[in-house]
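Practice problem: predict the structure.
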Amino acid sequence: MRWITIYSKRTTFMCFTLLFLLYLLYVLNTSLVDKDVRPVNIAGPISHYKSAFFQLAALLGLNLEQGYEYRRFEKNVTPIKKLPDALIIGVKKCGTRALLEFLRLHPDVRAAGSEVHFFDKYYHMGFEWYREKMPPTLEGQITMEKTPSYWVTKSAPKRVYAMNPAVKLIAVVRDPVTRAISDYTQSASVFSKRPGLPPFEEFALLNSSIQWGGTYSVDASWPPVRLGIYARPYRRWLRRFPKSRLLLVNGERLVADPAAEMVRVQDFLGLKRIITDKHFYFNSTKGFPCLLKSETKPIPHCLGKTKGRNHPRINQSVIDRLKEFYKPHNQKFYQLSGVNFSWP
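Answer:
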């Protein structure tokens, strides 16, 4: 049939399709008698006609069978690795690990086991390297990754946007004073073997040699303090992504009522509400919720021993000074995000 031109192939195919429609109309009309309607059984004629339809298409050089089979079996039944659909981008010491572990309870969520640091440290390795760090997922499952340092990495928003402009972003925030103390507590535990670590007050305040009731100012250059100024990095992310793509999770509420906060997270990710209060119990020793069961552990368990450390006692005048320092920054964050977290 090489003598048939492209034009004639298409014309013949269109004519054949028209004949099929006329034949279908004939079958339907002949099934109607008088005023009664008989059940129409056209499965047989259509089956034979469809077979002839594909044969004619193949004869004309139109390979419809391959496309038809692809559409029938396109649903992915084999796990594959893909780039993340959602990222937990921060904030450090606000509950990002807890949020990720809670999300792992959902059967439609798969997350990288550890912080990958692709968008801040290993971006030069390329997206294929990043993809290989992800867990295999089935069609319909969400791939996630958590690295809190993305929140403050200046180049991260642009790099994430280059990966996927439609990616969903989650940031966990909490009272910046509590966050700073928690940050220091973690550092203190890391350097616990090093004697003579200065107290929190000496890091957080300038002129801290003066008695705490005297004149002093907050050292905004100290990372644990600076990280609590949320408005600045939040504005940076909004330059690339709309607010509808960035969910702010209340870190205090995640502890006090994890099930309610997880409803918001599941809705944001487009997931069925499966994670409920039946998955949690409150551990009074650690001071935060633990899991009754999870993806890998069918028995009750809490997060690692590095979570829920007891904070050192901080002089109240220092805490009050930090609250005063953060107050205008918090107000800017509330106005920018449209959410009032009511931090004291």
